[in-house]
Specification:
35% of the residues lie in helices and 17% in strands. It is of the alpha+beta class. Belongs to the peptidase S45 family. Heterodimer of an alpha subunit and a beta subunit processed from the same precursor.
Length: 765
Amino acid sequence: MLKAIKFVTYSAIVLALLATAVFYGALTLSLPTLSGSTSTRSIKDTTYLQRDDLGTSIIIAQNRSDASYALGFAHGQDRFFQMDLLRRNAAGELSALFGEAALPIDENRRFHQFRKRSEEAFKRLPKADQRELETYTNGVNDALAQFSVPSFEYLVTQTQPQPWKPEDSLLAIFSMYLDLQGRNLERDLLTDALYQQFGDDIASFLLQPSPFQAALDGSKIKTKPEPAPELPSSLLETAQRVEIEKTIAVGSNNWAVEGSLTRNGKAMLSDDMHLGLAVPVIWYRTQLNIQSGDDLLQITGVSLPGAPAIVVGSNGHVAWGFTNGYMDTADWYRLSPKDKTRLETETIPLKEGEHKYLLEQSEFGPVRVIDGEKYALSWVAHRDYAVNLNLMKLEQAETVKQALDVSKATGIPVQNMVLADSKGNIAWQATGAIPDRKQPLARPVPSSAYDKRWQQSAKDVPFIVNPKSERIWTGNSRVVSAKEDQRYGNGGYALGARSAQIKRRLMEKDIFDIEDFYAIQLDNEAVFLQRWYELLLELLTRDDTLFQEDIKALSSWNNCACEDSVGYTLVRKYRDELIDRLFAPLETHLEEQQLSLSLIERQIEPALWQLVKEQPESWLPKNTADWNQFLVMAYLEMRDNLMIEMTGHANGSLQALKWGAVNQLEVQHPFSRQIPILGSILDMPPVAGFGDRFMPAVQGRTFGASQRLIVQPGDEINGVLTLPGGQSGHPLSPFYRKGFESYSNNAFTPLLPGPPVQQISFEPN
């Protein structure tokens, strides 16, 4: 018997070792070849793809088209599966990879018919842009053809990679529309529900303007707090404790100062786009060197695998960066019985077979049925002007003025584009697809009120050049004037506290260095939470014996989202708890219609603060004697639940609640979330949390700065470009983790690439 057990044990070990060897063997075979030479019919002149020690793709070409081929080849080698996910996410084709579990996502995406729209959009592109995408596509597919074994993601999913198509690059842009605007498409429906179901007083109370405003012109939307309205007792009685999602997904920053505020007279730009963080990271370090006669055009920055453009970067004359604009780019129209609709069948491929999805369409947009009524969505992403390659025109701009002129009709989700040039100029512009309709809607209206100007893009895009302050800043909140806000609308603006903090930092100095800008990117001072800190401290000091340890933690909170701050955790989580409890009566009711206050959660600070300060009787949650008891009980339950989450029990030292542990950054591969055993191979090491919402250093557990760029055009040698991960999506690649350590330690990574360590040469065939 003992021998049999030993035999089985040894056999299991041998089989495990064999399986590991096979797995690593397959991984090794799927590594791309990064040195050598090849020939292709897709280029006109000899072209080089080099990589430095970080894996930065350094492309040397005689024309932009050849550079696109080499960039497509690099993307195909290092990031094809990521590109595949981008196109499938937009097209609603994930089920072919992951099976029927992905059908709800695919059906949601098919509502927008982005595969069909990308094919039509490609046909509308100028012939030169079509050729650009075809050449880029050839590069991707030539790289794909060189793999003798598919990358491990296809081995795990037991599927085969499908060739890239030119229109897939437009799907990659549509995927960014979903990421940047998709969550806010239902804001108008939520607003309508608030007014219809809770009345004007409660709706207006929840939607009142934020006191935190930092528009570039200094204009303010007037705030006039009204007393908290009466909450119907019926809502209070049926309320269930519900966690309202505290989205951190509004977090990009950029700013610039004129050359008069720098030591060398060149303007300085900072850009840190905040997105969900995963392995591999979304951006790809790229430098294009295009030699035209005696002139060298060098563009350094990041590209999006799936598209041939440099998204953010500098060309030696002009630097550009983006934050999400959050203007109102979607309206809902209530259809009448006279409005004609049609049914279209969307065929969703599965691993085996296919799934049919029926979509109802109208002349105003795709249709959704809500409480028996039909509503049509008009969204800018559905318009003919939504996607194009005009972003690439920035690459040749030599001044801020030229950059503004060539970017008026750029087909991307509307962004706050900030520019700086080597002559010392700076500018801001709302860049991207903006509908020409003149009156953004906050609630659905009858289809008879449809504005036909939806079909054309706005020509009156707002911009500012060299403002009197000599500074420009954006942080996803309102940038335009209060008057212009009526023209462009609120599509889910950030609260404004972060933008105000950036503005404050920029006004504190008269001369800026690279280090000063990096300090602002890493600024985690808890300015916004200061009043909540004071409120909680005053509450707990009423019973300083019971809350002795808590008061000590609060007193040493350091006024920052620092990794060792327990006090910050207590303040931050207490505010979250009050949101869940005080708005539970409304959220409980909204959930029945599959709506949520999470769509406006970041904007209900004025209402939340009023409730806590005014303490109206009708809003006091049931089973509590008075507001003091409620506020204390909410704190105790929040603290104990958090202790249980972190330690497994409610007792023990509060030191377990350090913000660095509670908000630990975990940059994971999508597969390791489903197959945890792969975590040690695929994931980046966890990092103690640093930063939070409502401050420049935005960071959550799976969210943060997707890149940190600081550059003065013409002085790129001193520029900074730090990314939270490596270039390659292959876990055995030397470039898989390169750069993450510097990112996690808040250290500089140079913008310009280092000496090449590998090179592929392409010869025209």
